[in-house]
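hey can u check if this looks right to u? its 950 residues, i copy pasted from the old doc so theres a chance i mangled smth
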Amino acid sequence: MTYGSDWIKCDLHVHTPASFFHQYGDRNDPKVWEKFIGELEALPPEFQIIGVNDYLTVEGYKKLLAEKANGRLKNIACLLPVVEFRLNKLVGQAATKRVNYHVIFSDSLDPDTIQTQFLNALSATYHLEAGAKHPDWSGIVSEESLNQLGKLVKAQGLGNTALQGESDREVGFNNFNVDYVELEKILEFTPFKGKVITAIGKTEWDAYRWEGGGAADKRTIINKTDIVFLSVDSVDQYDKARQSLVSANVNSLLLDCSDAHYFTGSTQKDRIGNCFTWIKAEPTFDGLKQILFEPETRISVSETNPDKKAPYYVIESVRFVNASETFTDQEIRLSPYLNSIIGGKSTGKSLLAALIVKSSDIVEYERRSFQKSGGGHTDSIAWLDSALPDLDFEVRWKDGKVTSLLNDETRKVTYFPQHYLNSNVNDQGVGNKELNKIIRVVLSQNEHYGKAFDAYRDGLQGLDGEIASAATAFENALRDLREARHRTGEKGKSADVKANIAKLEQDFTSAKKAYDLSENEIAKHAALNQQISDLREQRNVIQSDIDVLASVTEQRLLEDTSIYSAVPELMYQSSEGLNAEVTAILNPIMEKARADILAAIAPVKTKYETVRGDIDEQIAALEPELHPILEKIAKSAPLREMSAALKSEGEKLATVLALEVEIDGLKTKITSLGDTINQFVDKRLALAGAVMKVMTDHPVAGGDDQLSVDIKPYIKSSHIQSLLKDRIKYQSNPDIREIVQIPEPLDTDVEGYRKAVSLVVKQSIEEKLEFKGEFNLAGVLQELLGNAFYLNYDLTLRGDSFRIMSPGKRALALLRIIVELDSSEHPIILDQPEDDLDNRSIYEGLASYLKSKKLARQIIVVTHNPNVVVGGDSEYVVVANQTGQESNQDNERFRFEYVYGGLELSFFDAAKPWVLQRQGIKEHVCEILDGGKDAFLRREQLYSTLKGRS
C-alpha cells in the first residue's frame, strides 16, 4: 500500500529537451539528455510529482518513462504527461490572441493513446493565423507538419524580415492555434473521461483586457479550467498573483510551476527545481486530483514543508509484535493529519485505536476507557492479555521514539472512547460539574489563565483563613456580649442604680438630722459622695481607653499592616518576581510604620495613665475629708447602714457603668464583624472577577461566531439549602424556613445568597438562630461562606447555550471545547464520535472541525460515517477486516488485517481473492460506509459550486 496523503513537491510544468522550445541544448545530443535526467534525479526528495510539459508532443514523456523503466528517476514517484499549446481566441483583442493552455493526463493513459486520440484529433482543428492563405491545410501534429506549416506561412510573408529570420518549425508552432470549442469536444472522448486536468497560463490570461464584450469570455475560460499556472521568483509574488484572481472573483486555484526551460545552474527563474508548490496527496494522478476538491487544505505555496508539527507529537507508524496468527505483522503507517479507521462490525477498528492509546499513554487510557459497571472496571481489550500473553504493540513516533505495551516509555495523547462525550456529560442545566472540570483543566494550560486560576485558588485559601478568623471572632464577641448582659442583669442598669442612690441620699438627708449632723456636714457628705462617684465613673472611662491603647501591640500591627493587606493584588495577580521585588521595597516601610505607630501611641497612653493617676489622687484626697463625717455617721446604726448602702450602690454604679461601656464596645465590634462577614461575598466575587478578566483575553472567550466560553461565579444553591436545613432549627424560624423550602433554587441567584448570608448574620446578632446538635455559629458561617461559590463555564456553540443544546450538539460542543482550549499539540484519538452526534452535527460540525483542526494536531478517528472520512478530507484511511465476520470477506493470512492509503487510491481487481487487496481505499470507503458514494459526490459538487464563479 501507499503512504497516504502527505506534503510533497509538485512541479507540473517541466519542459524536456524534446520540447519545441527549451534552452538545454541539442535535443539529439545524448549528453544533453543525460544532464537533464541527472538534474531531475538530483532534485530534493520532496519532489514527487513531475509534469513532463512539452509543446504538442509526448516524446519527452516517453523518453523519461523508458529511463524510469530501466531504473533511473527512482526519486520521482510519479511522472505525468502534460501537453501545452495555444488557444486561438479568448476575447478577440487584437493585441494578443493566444493564451497558453495545458492538459495534464493521467499516467494510466498510454502515451500512444494520447498521441492518437488527442494530438491527432487536435490537428484537424488547427488553423492558420487570421489572414493566412491556406485554409485547406491539415496535418498530424508532428515536427514535420509544423515545418510544413512554417514554410507556408513564411511563403505568405516574404516581405516580413523578422518572420523570414525564424526557423520553419518555430513559425509553424507559433501559428498553431487550438479552437477551444473543439478542444472541449475532444476531452469528452471516452479515453479521457476523469483522466485529465486542465490548466491555463496566468501571465498570458492577464494580458487580455476586461473592457468590451471579451470580459465574459475571459472570465468563462479561466473558470472552466481546473487550475491556473504561474512561474514566480518568490512566494510573495505568488501571493500577490493569487490575490489578484481572488479580487477578480475568478478561479484562484493557482499553482507555481518552474516552467523549466533551463538547467538548475541558470539564473533564469524558468529553471529545473524552481518550484514552491506543495500538495498534500498521494504521489499519483488521482492524488493530484484531490487538490480540485480540497484546494484550501491540499495546496501550499511556500519555501519549506507546510507540516510544522514537532516530530515528537506525531505517530509515524504502529505494528503488532508476537501476535501469532491473530494480527497482521505489517507496519501500519499513519499521516500527521487526519487518519480514519474504517471497517465492518468487529473488524478491529476500535481495538487498533485503543492499542495506540494504551501503548502511548496508559494513564489516559485508564482514565478515559474504564467505565464503572456494577462497582468494577471493564477493559474492552483485556481479552488480549489471556488470548495473546506475549503480545506487544509498538507505536513509532516521527522522532524515532518507540512506545509500546511492554516498555515504560510514554507519550501524551488525548483519547475519547465510544460514547464518552454523552455518557460523561448528561446534565443540560447550569453548573455541569464535568463540563466545568474539563474546561478548567484545558484552560489552565494557557499560561495567563493558568496563572490567574492558581492565584484564584491561593486567594480562596487566604480568604478561608480570614473567614475562619472573622467567624470565630464574631461568635466570641456575641458570647462576650451575652455574658456582659447577664452580669449587667445581675447588677442592674446604671439608671436604676442612680435612682436608688438618689433615693438613699434623700433618706439619708432626712435621717441625719436626728443624729447630730450639721447641714454643712450633710451637704459636704453628699457633695463628697457625688464627687467620688463621678471621679470613679471618669476613671472607668479612662481605664477603658487605656485598655484600647494597650491592645495596639507590635504583634497585632504585624498582622494588620502586612504587605498583602496593603496591596492584596500581590497575593493572586502578580508574578513571583514582582512579589519579591515589591516585598523587598515595602517591608522596611511597613516595619518603620509599625515602629512609628507604637512610638506615637506610647505618649498618648502615658497621658491617659497620668489622667487616671490624677483621678486616683483626687479620690484619695477626698476620702480623708469624708472620713470624719462617716465616723459621726457610724455612731448611729441607721446612718451607718444608709452610708454603707450609698457606698455599695456607688461601687455598684461604677461596675455597671464599666459593663455598659464594655457592652457598647462589643456591640460596635459585632456590627463591624458582621459587616466584614457580609463583605466576604464581594471578596469572593472579586477573586472570581480576576479570573474572568484574564479569560477575556483567551482566543475563544468572545467566540469565533461558532464557539465561545463565558465564565461567571455561580452559587451552590442546593448546598446552601442543605447546610441551613441540616444545621439550623428552621421549622421555628420563618425567614430561614423560606430559604430552605425554595422548590428549585437557582445557582445564578447571587443576590439570594447574599441575602441568606446577611440573614444569618442579622439573626445571630438578634439571637434568633438555634443550631442543631453540636453545630455552632462559627462553623456554619465558615461553611456558608467557604464552599458556596464555583466558577461556571457556559459553553455556546453557534448561538446556543450548553444547557439548551440537543444531546448531539452538546457532544460536539464538548469535543470542540476540549480540543480548542487545549494548548497541547499531541495526537487526538477519537473512537466513533459520531455515535454521540446527530446527523446535522456530523455533517456541519464534526467533519469541518476535524478538517480544520488536523492542521495543528494529528487526529486518528475510528468511524463508520462517510462524512467524517470524506467531508473531513482524511489524508489517510486504514481499512480493518476480521476473517470470518462475513462470507467472501476473508483475509490473506491473519485473523485481523489492515490496509491503508489516501482517499485518492482507487482501483478494483476482481481477480484478487482477498477482500482488502481486491480494491482501493476509495472503493472500500464506498462499500463499507453507508452513503460513501454520496459523500464523494457531495464533495465534488461542492468544489464545482465554489469554482463556478462566472
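DSSP finds 34 helices and 24 strands in the chain.
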